[in-house]
């Protein structure tokens, strides 16, 4: 049986093309996805990677062979595909490998209304069918072959976002946007056109070989060009999108990175102004400032595990208006509970444009604590090292421990979370405290145990 364990991840399909997968498997994934979701039609989009069009064509063959229609929306960002799925009420497939290097490609799948597909919500069954059919052949074609049509959703996607955040009355702002040769170069010009914004574009040319830098702004080296451009042009703000433009990172007028936790708190305050008394989801490694700001604005914070499937499940359970993660994924009830970096960016632009001060002053009220950032340690045995850290703190009466996601230890004026990576032999440490020196002390104490 074909082993798909290397390419079927927790939330998507992703691997090197053609070494790990290619068009024959894409066709089987199309058939299997259709079988699992049982829809009348499926909407399909793709990013700018050279392998994407061929994979889309093969996947479409698999869909239509089951008698199901295909709606192709062509080049798009992942959140544009979610918009199409939500507005058309159809399952969707987005061909992208997000921030991964050029040789990779993948599929992000969703049910109608942009509902997530992960291991526990259909992906395991899709994998089982693909493995089975790759060995003994897919079922014969349906009596009626599905049709293929095309639709341009970019104008409607842009109009919908602009209906959620009004930027027309903003003071004039100069905005540097680094698209990283990814799909932000496709969406930003349409979404932000004819607004009181002077957009300074960096790397808007769609190029799946990523000739300038990786389209992965969580790595500090990949936002250096953005930081320099903001300082050189005297811009008010800088925005950096990842390859499929579903995440957005922000730098202020000095070129200093703005914590995604501060962005989560800022957007939460704005969403609670629209939806008084609402619930806001945050994961266990976002800053203390997030639940504080939510409560200050009359909302209810709910803490959950890291990962979009957990965020979306809690949003559905609680009816939450917004959810944010420290990885710069931002989820909106008004956007089918899906993540959209573009909408989060528009909220930040609106907040900045509504007042006269600089971005650094605006976000300062939401960035209240010192933090370590995520620190990765390669270990031989994740469980053994985690247990050693737990043992060091379990006997203390001045801390609280919880196991919502990895190990979280909370002191009087500090906390840390230690989580194992799902894909690498790593432990990930995040520390936050009221003072930088406390962050350093707690960080060093934990790392001494982890790396012993």
Q: What's the level 1 CATH class of the largest domain?
A: Alpha Beta
Tell me the total number of β-strands. 23
Q: End-to-end span in angstroms?
A: 41 Å
Major beta-sheet overview: 7 strands, mixed
Superfamily (CATH H level) name of the largest domain: Alpha-D-Glucose-1,6-Bisphosphate, subunit A, domain 3
Provide the gyration radius in Å: 22 Å
Strand content: 15-25%
Q: Which fold name corresponds to the CATH topology of the largest domain?
A: Alpha-D-Glucose-1,6-Bisphosphate, Chain A, domain 3
Tally of separate helices: 14
What does the oligomeric state look like here? Answer: single chain
Provide the number of structural domains. 4
Q: Which CATH architecture of the largest domain would you pick?
A: 3-Layer(aba) Sandwich
User: What sort of overall outline do the alpha carbons produce when their principal axes are compared?
Assistant: globular
Helix content: 25-40%
Mean pLDDT: 96
Question: Which class do the helix and strand fractions yield?
Answer: alpha/beta
- Return residue spans where pLDDT drops below 50 for at least 5 consecutive residues: none
Keywords: Isomerase, Magnesium, Metal-binding, Phosphoprotein
InterPro entries: A-D-PHexomutase_a/b/a-I, A-D-PHexomutase_a/b/a-I/II/III, A-D-PHexomutase_a/b/a-II, A-D-PHexomutase_a/b/a-III, A-D-PHexomutase_C, A-D-PHexomutase_C_sf, Alpha-D-phosphohexomutase_SF
Protein name: Phosphoglucosamine mutase
Domain Alpha-D-phosphohexomutase alpha/beta/alpha: 6-135, 156-255, 263-369
């Amino acid at each position: 049986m074909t082993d798909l364990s290397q390419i079927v991840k927790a939330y998507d399909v992703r691997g090197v093309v053609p070494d790990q997968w290619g068009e024959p498997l894409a066709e089987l994934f199309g058939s299997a996805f259709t079988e699992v979701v049982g829809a009348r039609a499926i909407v399909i989009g793709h990013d700018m990677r050279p392998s994407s069009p061929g994979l889309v064509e093969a996947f479409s063959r698999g869909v239509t062979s089951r008698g199901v229609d295909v709606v192709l929306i062509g080049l798009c960002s992942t959140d544009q595909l979610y918009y199409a799925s939500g507005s058309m009420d159809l399952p969707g497939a987005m061909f992208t490998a997000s921030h991964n290097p050029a040789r990779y490609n993948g599929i992000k799948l969703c049910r109608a209304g942009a509902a997530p597909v992960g291991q526990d919500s259909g992906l395991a069954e899709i994998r089982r069918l693909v493995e089975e059919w790759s060995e003994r052949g897919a079922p014969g074609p349906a009596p009626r072959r599905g049709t293929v049509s095309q639709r341009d959703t970019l104008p409607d996607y842009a109009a919908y976002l602009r209906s959620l955040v009004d930027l027309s009355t903003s003071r004039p702002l100069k905005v540097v946007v680094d698209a990283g040769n990814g799909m932000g170069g496709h969406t930003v010009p349409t979404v932000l056109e004819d607004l009181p914004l002077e957009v300074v574009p960096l790397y808007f040319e769609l190029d799946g070989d990523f000739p300038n830098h990786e389209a992965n702004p969580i790595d500090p080296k990949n936002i250096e060009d953005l930081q320099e451009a903001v300082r050189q042009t005297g811009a008010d703000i800088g925005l950096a999108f990842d390859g499929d433009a579903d995440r957005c990172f922000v730098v202020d007028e000095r070129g200093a990175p703005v914590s995604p936790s501060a962005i989560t708190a800022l957007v939460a305050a704005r969403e609670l102004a629209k939806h008084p008394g609402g619930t806001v989801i945050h994961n266990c490694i976002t800053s203390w400032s997030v639940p504080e700001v939510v409560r200050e604005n009359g909302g209810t914070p709910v803490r959950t595990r890291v990962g979009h499937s957990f965020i979306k499940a809690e949003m559905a359970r609680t009816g939450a208006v917004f959810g944010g993660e420290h990885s710069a994924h931002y989820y909106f009830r008004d956007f089918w509970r899906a993540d959209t970096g573009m909408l989060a960016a528009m909220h930040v632009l609106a907040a900045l444009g509504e007042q006269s001060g600089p971005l650094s002053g605006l976000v300062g009220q939401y960035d209240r604590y010192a933090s370590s950032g995520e620190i990765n340690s390669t270990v031989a045995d994740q469980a053994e090292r985690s247990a050693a850290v737990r043992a060091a703190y379990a006997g203390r009466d001045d801390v609280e421990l919880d196991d919502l996601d990895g190990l979280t230890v909370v002191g009087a004026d500090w906390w840390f979370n230690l989580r194992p990576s799902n894909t690498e032999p790593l432990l990930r440490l995040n520390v936050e405290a009221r003072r930088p020196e406390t962050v350093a002390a707690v960080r060093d104490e934990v790392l001494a145990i982890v790396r012993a």
